[in-house]
Design goal:
The strands form four sheets. A five-stranded parallel sheet has the order 5-4-3-6-7, with helices on both faces. A two-stranded antiparallel ribbon has the order 1-2. Strands 8-9 form a two-stranded antiparallel sheet. The protein is flat. The chain folds into three domains: 132 residues, no CATH class; 104 residues, NAD(P)-binding Rossmann-like Domain (Rossmann fold); 189 residues, no CATH class. Helix content is 52%, strand content 10%. By secondary structure, it is α/β, with parallel strands linked by helices. β10, α14 and β11 form a beta-alpha-beta unit.
């Protein structure tokens, strides 16, 4: 079963992405064959390089336009319009590359022919894949063992993620019917019949999602299923791979101790620090015009300092002073610290714009240089909130095992947090990052953050 950063990716999704790339590349080669015939064989390496470049650019544009996100239903017309937008952006990028590297230029008629063939092919390819998802074809057949809160969250999430690659065919409750039953599932209440049920319904994987395992775990039945060739998966581990989060409320210390991850490696720390220094220096230089203009607007818009300094909790629970552009009125917290809210009246006009575009966080690059923060990591929180959340949320202090970040896994996956419930949901993402942290994941988070900034998602 393929995983990326310990997150499960269905084989059909991998096949879809590879197939779409081959389809775009084949359209370019077909364009050459139409206008040049078999003469293209003599220039095959160069033409393959050109087709690979076009494929890479167009697939990146499809990704940045959210066209590899299949969790929500979408009409064919809407999908075609978004592909058109991505294709337009791809043409602009290709034109810029051609100006810089003339050797990779494709003639206009070949490019137009390839463009048309690839567009039609991609729309049809995606329509077929959409039907595959909606009819749950090529899915792994699941049995959910458990009927409590943990099983409910798994079933609910599988119902929300239509492209998960799983189908819940059977649920076996502990004693009573499950709290939430998947629409297509057959329900049983006696775990003693587990192996017969697994064989009867051709189950491929058993997900053990028991809230309380003491005296309730059907050990012998699960061993029989294991020996019969079925996969047995812990519910928390399954949910982690499905969603990129950890079920904080259901985790016990032994799971954290014995699971893979939650280990700091010196090599990764060294590479992360090198990336932090290079990216922060580059960011400070490139953003200098925006920084100077923002400082001027802030000063003209409202009285008070340009920069806002605030104590936050960092690695190991140590406090540091975080630097941001001031986006609120000077008297925003005269009544004490409060969570930022959507459409917060304390935020200035330009402050709202800065928050949407993340400009207010540019000064934090100094924090990265000073080693208070990393480029990627859990967002640092204020001591007053940390003290409160540590008392109410289990394992909250684990997020301080790594250096906090300017951006992070929770920031790209979860809307801006404004309550203790949101803090719990964000912690589920933060612990996933702490557990699975690596350089490739950091790079992906940075690229995803760029997309979030370009499309102005998630800021308050």
């Amino acid at each position: 079963m393929p995983y990326i950063f310990h997150k499960y990716v269905p084989l059909r999704a991998i096949a879809f992405g590879i197939g779409e790339g081959l389809l775009i590349a084949a359209a370019v080669m077909a364009g050459y064959l139409i206008f040049a015939g078999m003469a293209v064989i003599g220039q095959l390496p160069l033409l393959l390089a050109r087709s690979l470049l076009v494929t890479l650019v167009f697939q990146l544009c499809l990704y940045y336009f959210d066209l590899y996100e299949f969790s929500r239903k979408q009409h064919l017309y809407d999908m075609a319009m978004r592909i058109t937008q991505a294709w337009g952006a791809g043409c602009v990028i290709i034109a810029i590359i051609y100006l810089i590297i003339p050797a990779v230029i494709i003639s206009t008629r070949v490019f137009l022919a390839a463009f048309l063939m690839a567009y039609i092919g991609v729309v049809l390819w995606r329509a077929v894949y959409r039907l595959t998802i909606e009819h749950r074809l090529f899915t792994t057949r699941l049995l959910i063992l458990g009927g409590g809160e943990q099983a409910e969250r798994i079933v609910r999430k599988l119902g929300e993620i239509i492209d998960s690659g799983y189908s819940v065919n059977v649920q076996v409750g502990e004693a009573a019917p499950p709290r939430l039953v998947a629409p297509e599932a057959v329900v049983y209440t006696d775990p003693a019949e587990l192996i017969e049920v697994v064989r009867r319904h051709h189950i491929e994987m058993v997900v053990v999602a028991l809230d309380d395992r003491r005296g309730k775990m059907p050990i012998r039945e699960l061993m029989d299923c294991k020996l019969a060739g079925r996969r047995i998966v812990n519910g928390i581990t399954f949910f982690e791979g499905l969603t990129g989060t950890i079920l904080v409320e259901n985790v016990n210390p032994s799971w954290i101790i014995f699971s893979e991850g939650f280990q700091k490696r010196r090599r990764i720390d060294l590479i992360k620090r090198s990336m932090d220094v290079v990216l922060s220096i580059f960011g400070l230089i490139v953003s200098l015009p925006v920084t100077l203009l923002s400082a001027l607007i802030i000063k003209l818009e409202s009285p008070g300092p340009v920069l806002y300094r605030q104590v936050r909790v960092g690695e190991g629970g140590r406090s540091f002073e975080l630097i941001k552009f001031r986006s609120m009125r000077r008297d925003a917290e005269r009544d004490g610290p409060v969570w930022a809210a959507e459409h917060d009246p304390r935020v200035t006009w330009y402050g709202a714009f800065m928050r949407k575009t993340r400009i207010d966080e540019l000064p934090q690059l100094w924090n990265v240089l000073r080693k208070d923060m990393s480029f990627v990591g859990p967002r640092p929180e204020r001591p007053v909130f940390v003290a409160r959340l540590q008392q109410r949320i289990p394992y909250y202090s684990l997020r301080h095992a790594v250096r906090p970040g300017v951006t992070g896994w929770a920031q790209i996956c979860f809307p801006y947090g404004a309550s203790e419930e949101d803090a719990l949901r964000k912690l589920e993402f933060d612990l996933y990052y702490v557990k699975n942290m690596n350089v490739v994941m950091d790079t992906m988070i940075i690229l995803q953050t760029i997309r979030t900034v370009l499309f102005r998602k998630g800021g308050r």
